[in-house]
Backbone:
């Protein structure tokens, strides 16, 4: 203990203060005149003053007063000098301003050695992030000592690009399998810089180590080696791997479960005795058990796993401990935060029912489905605590944060099929046609016509070849039932080779869910179609329906959908079978149309980053019979619907008024198409490539004559700001065609799956 401990402090003195104010120092110390002296307090004062970064050295001292009854505490300071200037030299690839923005030290700051070194490291990091892996930065000590100027001397070195990545020592897994785990990538001209990054390399070693350990190689050791070219501009990264022994699961022991027997647990989990040890499969096994018990109402279940290695042999024993908690039933389902949205809009997306066991899987499904409506920024679903008087029952609290469901979109687009057109769209995804405003102010503030989950859309698309103006309203749960309703009014203008088409009218559609994957529907439409500005050499089929005609239709169909993502599917299928009776509600034409369309999506490969290679198989059949169909109701292929051929040109040719065959297609009553497309990732998640085969025909009667085949390659650009569907650029080359066919090498548009 200090000999002066406990004596009163008579004075506190400060020596060496020049530019630092006495007030600043006093505000950061606890020792005070009249208080008992404590060495620990003085030490804490020194730590507090050091944090100010104003002093090079702080020396505290305690002395007795002449009468020996008190203590004088003295703090001796050696202040840091201030930076007169901050300068850089030797930099060419990075300008001064970028460097100064990257460092924190400024003119007038104390010349703190730690802060100066930190600034030097920040400059090195800046250069390495721009590909200058060999960059070196030093602080000139002479300039610093003589003039208090911080001068960073930079040796940039060449920009290093990774030209190759190599694996050595890997036997269990191929280089391609290991490559998919890496963030470090080789350089690709204009697409990828391939810069060398020390932090990324360290993360890659960790990722590779996890990859091996997740597959049973628990003793794996991985190091990396850099081989630089003679000019230091290119590098080869070599990963040196010692795989070690392969560990297997020797025994699985289950404890704690009352609802499931140990044998049932072992049957449910994805890792078994004798399997290769896998941390990933153990994690999946925990999830399986929690979901299995959660479905039975044990939503507080906890599953813990402990893996123990045999010290001598490559075996692992697994202990699974299950704590089920109490069985819970649903009391009430309560919605919160939906100030505008009606509660039924939320409740129709959940499967919770009062007096039934709480199901944890339903909780996750409900979160997913409520988010999928697009009406809410955030969704939280939590069960309440058990009631003290009835602990079996718990309320389900659904808390939502309402989002902006209205939008106005402006844009322009170009398509090889439809030409150039602009777009102005007004959409409200939480519309309520029955919510009339009670005042003008309520209407202006957007508090009216809101809350029922209906979708209202106004779309204006003027273009040089195609224009469309439409208003639509849809309700996914009309009148609170499982029926969906949609309606639209539209006016369309289309400029074709030998005539102009104007079409206006409306449509209604009522559909109903039939289980999890099936949907049935009935539909009706009324359209007025006018052909004008007809070329004198146009086919007779065009003159037959000159001027205005009325088309009505009554249809029905069924759809089966199992795709995992409607905007960007990677697995599953979609089947649609439809029938429409034209003229059922009057009009100028009578015939029957049958259609069938089937699309299958198969994930053929998936890398470590989750990028998928997808095979898409598409079949389409259409047949019209029972009367004469007008040219604008017939089938055509070409353009985006049959790549390699011009838009709407895969179809029979008609006759001109003089009896000669017209070069212009007039469509057919029979359509058959089969195509396959393989999409694979090229760069990150933004660029993909496709290879495709399109085959099919359009004829006047059921026939496979004039069958065409094309092959090609394409590119998909995924731009998040434009939605999930990518921009598609395809180069198609017919290999089987007719002499009269018009070919089109490039087609481009937005690739909507169906």
Residues:
């Amino acid at each position: 203990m200090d000999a002066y401990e406990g004596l009163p402090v008579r004075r506190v003195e400060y020596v060496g203060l020049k530019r630092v104010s006495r007030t600043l120092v006093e505000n950061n110390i606890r020792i005070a005149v009249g208080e008992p002296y404590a060495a620990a307090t003085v030490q804490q004062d020194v730590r507090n003053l050091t944090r100010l970064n104003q002093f090079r050295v702080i020396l505290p001292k305690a002395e007795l007063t002449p009468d020996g009854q008190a203590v004088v505490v003295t703090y001796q300071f050696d202040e840091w000098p201030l930076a007169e200037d901050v300068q850089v030299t030797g930099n060419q690839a990075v300008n001064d301003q970028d460097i100064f923005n990257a460092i924190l030290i400024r003119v007038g700051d104390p010349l703190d050695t730690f802060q100066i070194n930190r600034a030097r490291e920040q400059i090195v990091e800046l250069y390495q992030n721009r590909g200058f892996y060999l960059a070196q930065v030093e602080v000139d000590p002479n300039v610093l000592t003589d003039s208090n100027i911080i001068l960073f001397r930079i040796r940039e070195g060449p920009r290093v690009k990774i030209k190759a990545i190599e694996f050595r020592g890997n036997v269990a897994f191929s280089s391609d399998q290991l490559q998919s785990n890496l963030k470090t990538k080789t350089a690709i001209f204009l697409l990828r810089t391939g810069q060398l990054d020390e932090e990324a390399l360290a993360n890659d070693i960790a990722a590779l180590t996890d990859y091996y350990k997740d597959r049973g190689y628990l003793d794996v050791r991985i190091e990396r080696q850099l081989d630089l070219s003679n000019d230091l501009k290119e590098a080869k990264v070599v990963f040196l791997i010692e795989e070690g022994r392969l560990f297997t699961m020797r025994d699985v022991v289950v404890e704690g479960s009352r609802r499931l027997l140990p044998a049932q647990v072992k049957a449910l989990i994805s890792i078994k005795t004798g399997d290769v040890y896998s941390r990933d499969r153990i994690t999946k096994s925990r999830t399986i058990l929690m979901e299995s018990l959660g479905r039975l109402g044990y939503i507080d279940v906890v599953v813990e796993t402990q893996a123990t290695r045999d010290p001598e042999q490559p075996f692992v024993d697994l202990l699974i401990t299950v704590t089920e908690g109490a069985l819970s039933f649903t009391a009430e389902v309560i919605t919160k935060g939906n100030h505008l949205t009606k509660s039924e809009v939320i409740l129709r997306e959940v499967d919770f029912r009062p007096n039934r066991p709480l199901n944890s899987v339903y909780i996750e499904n409900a979160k997913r489905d409520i988010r999928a409506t697009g009406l809410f920024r955030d969704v939280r679903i939590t069960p309440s605590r058990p009631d003290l008087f009835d602990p079996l029952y718990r309320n389900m609290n659904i808390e939502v944060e309402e989002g902006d469901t209205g939008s106005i979109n402006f844009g322009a687009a170009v398509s090889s099929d439809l030409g150039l057109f602009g777009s102005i769209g007004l959409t409200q995804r939480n519309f309520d046609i029955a919510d009339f405003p009670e005042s003008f102010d309520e209407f202006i503030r957007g508090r009216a016509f809101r809350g029922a989950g209906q979708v209202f859309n106004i779309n204006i698309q003027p273009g040089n070849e195609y224009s469309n103006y439409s208003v639509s309203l849809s309700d996914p749960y009309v009148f609170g039932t499982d029926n969906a309703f949609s309606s639209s009014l539209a006016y369309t203008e289309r400029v074709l080779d030998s005539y102009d088409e104007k079409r206006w009218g409306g449509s209604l559609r009522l559909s109903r869910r039939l289980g999890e994957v099936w949907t049935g529907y009935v539909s009706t439409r009324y359209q007025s179609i006018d052909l004008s500005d007809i070329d004198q050499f146009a086919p007779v089929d065009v003159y037959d329906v000159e001027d205005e005609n009325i088309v009505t239709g009554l249809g029905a169909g069924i759809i089966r959908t199992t795709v995992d993502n409607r905007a960007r599917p990677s697995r599953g299928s979609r089947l649609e079978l439809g029938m429409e009776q034209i003229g059922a509600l009057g009009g100028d034409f009578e015939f029957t149309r049958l259609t069938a369309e089937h699309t299958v999506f198969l994930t053929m490969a998936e890398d470590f980053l989750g990028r998928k290679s997808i095979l898409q198989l598409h079949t389409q059949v259409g047949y019209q019979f029972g009367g004469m169909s007008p040219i604008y109701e017939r089938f055509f292929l070409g353009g985006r619907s049959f790549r390699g051929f011009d838009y709407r040109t895969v179809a029979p040719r008609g006759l001109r008024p003089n009896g000669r065959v017209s070069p212009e297609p007039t469509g057919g009553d029979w359509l058959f198409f089969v195509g396959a497309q393989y999409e694979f990732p090229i760069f990150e998640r933004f660029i993909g490539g496709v290879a495709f085969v399109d085959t099919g025909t359009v004829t006047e009667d059921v026939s496979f004559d004039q069958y065409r085949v094309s092959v090609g390659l394409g590119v998909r650009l995924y731009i998040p700001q434009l939605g999930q569907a990518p921009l598609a650029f395809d180069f198609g080359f017919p290999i089987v065609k007719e002499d009269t066919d018009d070919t089109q090498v490039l087609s481009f548009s937005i690739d909507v799956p169906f």
